[in-house]
Design brief:
By secondary structure, this protein is α/β, with parallel strands linked by helices. The strands form two sheets. Strands 1, 2, 3, 4, 5, 6, 7 and 8 form an eight-stranded mixed β-sheet that branches. Strands 9-10 form a two-stranded antiparallel sheet. A hairpin with a 2-residue loop joins strand 9 and strand 10. It is globular, with a radius of gyration of 17 Å. The chain binds zinc ion (ZN) (2 copies). One zinc ion binds next to loops. Pathway: Amino-acid biosynthesis; L-histidine biosynthesis; L-histidine from 5-phospho-alpha-D-ribose 1-diphosphate: step 8/9.
């Protein structure tokens, strides 16, 4: 089974436009995928309101209309959304509770000051202090819950590199272990996110030693996604994710249907 459980369409403000859900499904069929999740952004802010989605109501409605169940002979399309900062405001819980989804991705993009990690001025910041605050926020998000897949825990590594500073979690494995413990205890699927393949790292995340540690600690649920924002990047890196998963001893990927986990053999 070839899966890609994290991708964006034109509903996401940072994705290629135009790029309809129908276009995306077609591109995934062409790419030979068997199961996909359409997971556009909706980020909640502490200061109130949302961002990163052009029309959350229409997005939720259309993705549910366009879902295709398994066993129809063609591609399976899961209706999802990538919700940023579910712990930031009760509005986030209300949104998830009042819309039907197969899968909800829980992401931490913005820190408590509502600034996306991507836009932080890392050359002029205490990066050690930042990373501890990041892990604190990630743990709060996990504790809060309301989602199925824990997205890209290595997101800061993608965007913190500057000058001679090479970001790494190597000196933060105690914090990573806290995150993995909570992930396992809450039943989230830890995401292998392929976006790093297009960045400075040139490889999918999280770093492989984190995957080993997750397995050693008893982790069983993983998710796999390209985090594609354009039509020509569906499935990009998902084979690398599968390779890493198998190498770490995982034999199945977790797919959520109507928010219930199902283990699907990786090969
Ligand atoms: Zn994300
Ligand atoms: Zn995404």
């Amino acid at each position: 089974m070839r899966v890609d459980l994290h991708m964006h369409t034109e509903y996401s403000a940072d994705a290629q436009y135009p790029q309809s859900i129908d276009d995306k499904i077609h591109a995934c069929e062409q790419a030979g995928l068997d199961i996909i999740g359409i997971t556009d952004h909706l980020d909640f802010l502490r200061s109130g309101g949302t961002r990163d989605n052009r029309d959350p109501e229409a997005c939720a409605r259309e993705v549910w209309e366009k879902r295709r169940p398994a066993g129809n002979g063609g591609i399976e399309v899961l209706a999802g959304m990538e919700i940023g900062q579910l712990h930031a405001t009760p509005d986030a819980d209300d949104f998830v509770r009042t819309h039907p989804f197969d899968m909800v991705i829980g992401s931490l993009h913005a820190m408590p000051n509502d600034l996306d990690i991507y836009f932080h001025d890392f050359p002029n910041m205490d990066c050690d202090k930042f990373l501890h605050e990041y892990f604190d926020q990630l743990l709060l998000l996990e504790e809060h819950g309301g989602f199925d897949v824990l997205a890209h825990i290595d997101y800061p590594l993608r965007v913190m590199k500057h000058g001679d500073y090479i970001p790494s979690f190597d000196n933060y494995m105690d914090r990573v272990q806290q995150v993995l413990r909570s992930c396992i205890d809450h039943g989230y699927a830890l995401e292998l996110n392929a976006a790093g393949i297009a960045g400075w790292q040139k490889k999918v995340g999280p770093p492989q030693d984190i995957l080993y540690e997750y397995k050693r600690m008893g982790g069983e649920r993983i998710s796999i996604g390209s985090d594609s924002h354009t039509l020509d990047t569906v499935a990009r890196g998902v084979d690398d994710c599968v390779k890493n998963a198998l190498d770490a001893g995982f034999t199945h990927v977790t797919v959520f249907r109507e928010r219930k986990p199902v283990q699907i053999a990786l090969k």
